[in-house]
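Troubleshooting log. The previous structure file for this entry was overwritten by mistake, so regenerating from the original sequence record. Sequence copied from the archived sheet and checked twice against the printout by T.R.
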Amino acid sequence: MKCSLRTLLFLVTMCLAIDARAKTWLVELDGSGDFTDIQPAVDAAAVGDTIHIGPGRFDTFHPIVAPGWTEDTIVGVLKDNLTFIGSGKDVTFLGPAAYYGPYGAHPKVFCSFGGLDAVIRDMTIENAKDGIYWHEGTLAIQSCLFRGRDPNFFAVYLFVDNGSVRDCDFDLVGGGGSAIGILNSQGNVQGLEVSNCIIEGAQFGVRVGYGAPNIHIRDTTMNVTFTGVVFESYSTGTVSRCHIAGAQESGLVATTGSTVGIVDSEVDGGRQGLYVSAGGTITGSQTIVANTTFAALGLSSAGQISITGSHILPTAGWAVYCYPFNWSPISIDLTGNYWGTTDSASIAASIHDNDDDPAIPHTVVYTPYANGPVPSETTTWGDLKALFR
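Regenerated output below.
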């Protein structure tokens, strides 16, 4: 019994010692905290510390030196396991009041490399060429607002091992730019989640590349100007309970061997709703692809799409358009969907495949199809989704 008590006392003492070592640093512009600038707080912090950032705008750049380059950065993070907490969206601002991105330079708000872990939350990040640039490690971004009015603005640029972007708003209206980029150039990415976000005005909503695996996008609304979600270069992931609208080109793209699942989502508008090429694959169900102007589903160069229990409702052009390509025959399973009509000849006429051009490897199988009909003029997206619940 005496040994057990001694062991327990030792463990409690160690826990208290660890807690005592973790410190919260206050950064306040009015001088009431420990620092008036964030970077000195980072320099003073130890592993596990928290940096609380007060109201106002923090826009002082400092050089951060990485292997091969030096960039101006407001917060250079070269210590592990730090937590950055602002005083709230549109209360704490990190970044200049106007866009700052000189030609040939890539100024950043947050920058880290070397496999470090961190949490960033409750602040506005804006107007530098890169909002957050994080190389390896694990990063959790939560309840932040990203804002930029320049097509070169990249709000979040991640090469992390694991991470999440949750409950964030991306306001890129009037300037474009990209909201989230997830790349696996070092082969370190294991998985990442984007959830409960709103993306407005971006050229690209989410871009996934270099074989990044297990990238899951859910409960996110995107109103973009060019393309909603792109998976390329053998990346994998899912899109669930998302609404993608406004794209000039495509809602969801899978290319160069990438594989994406889409479920319970809405792709509204665009030249093409879902597009696959170069061996990309999209599978899905309970999804609405509507109001496209060229093709609801586009397939090129050995790409494959297989969806069921969904709505394929172009405004103009084709329901499915398959491009000519020199490849072995490919059967495309699109059975069990609603095509806006119950007339088999009309459905067949809206599909451009091997039956129309022998140079096309794809043959679309669309029967049996859903008998509908779906209400049209007064139907809302919620009404359409309710048909599958």
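The two ends are 59 Å apart (CA to CA). Archived copy saved in two places this time.
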